[in-house]
Amino acid sequence: xxxxxxxxxxxxxxxxxxxxxxxxxxxxxxxxxxxxxxxxxxxxxxxxxxxxxxxxxxxxxxxxxxxxxxxxxxxxxxxxxxxxxxxxxxxxxxxxxxxxxxxxxxxxxxxxxxxxxxxxxxxxxxxxxxxxxxxxxxxxxxxxxxx
Length: 147
Hints:
The chain is mainly β. It has a single domain (25-53, 60-141), classed as Beta Barrel (Lipocalin). Helix content is 4%, strand content 39%. The protein contains one helix and eight strands, in the order H-E-E-E-E-E-E-E-E. The protein has one helix spanning 10-15, and strands at residues 26-34, 40-48, 64-72, 78-84, 100-106, 112-117, 120-124, 131-135. The strands form two sheets. Strands 1-2-3-4 form a four-stranded antiparallel beta sheet, with no helix packed on it. Strands 5-6-7-8 form a four-stranded antiparallel beta sheet, with no helix packed on it. The model has no long low-confidence stretch (mean pLDDT 83).
């Protein structure tokens, strides 16, 4: 079994001035999928909530919630990461909005599909450097059970 490291881009740690040894932020693993050649894609979340953050201009004081897909080679080392869900400070808006209960799938051509509630699906290149196609669905389309 190959153990995979917890990964977050250094640029996110720097812009939000996160100390990996300090508290006040959270990291979760949502889903993982492996390919036939031994690569593994891991979907994770990186979040921080501070009660006093509303209106803060400094990214080090702001709340954030990112989703990340990290590709690990067969040796377990990270080879690529895609950040989505919200704009990175100083960057443009995310091409993929944050989704709820997201899952991953690797298609036969190597493309990575990320799907989330209420029915959105986005295809990324195997190297996670491009959004190949996107089918977003707004929350208004979700049928509420029991209503």
